[in-house]
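Below is how a single chain appears once it has passed through the pipeline. First comes the sequence as given, then the structure the pipeline wrote out for it. We keep one example in the README because the format questions we get most often are answered faster by looking than by reading.
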Amino acid sequence: MWVVDERLLERARRVGAADPEVAEGIERALAELDRQGADVIVCTCSTIGGAAEIVGRRVGVAVVRVDRAMAERAVAIGGRVRVVAALESTLAPTRELLESVAADQGVELDVDVELIVGAWERFEAGDGDGYLALIADALAVHGLDCDVIVLAQASMAEAADRVAVGVPVLSSPRLAVAALVG
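Resulting structure:
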């Protein structure tokens, strides 16, 4: 079972995930999934993942953001972390998650972020191959300037398989599933 609310993401992109209307939309989605019997809800949107965790705690619903296990792995690797994103609205939440996990673990990180200009437009246009190619091209130039690369959107995961960069390239889907079942 799943809930997709494109208007919610669009609003979060415009005004931020902390917006009260975004929180209300998240609460409605969580209530629906809870009503359907979900034991754990995975928020696969990096833009609203942090807000979904907060709302979930407030209403008593177990919410896991898809990128939390990835952030934990990046912090375990440590050093210089390069966040690569296709959507600008995921840059701050991903950086904040990494910094929060690092602070909780007493680890210092050097986090740098990069937006792949034009990638999200390709994704929205249905050009999956072009989307992944732009991301892979960007990854290819970063293996020497960081210790680990974090892909900010779950949809970017396949790009890591297209290029060898010499450092770990972390994506959220596999790591989230492994954390949930392991």
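The longest helix spans residues 20-35.

See the next section for the split statistics.
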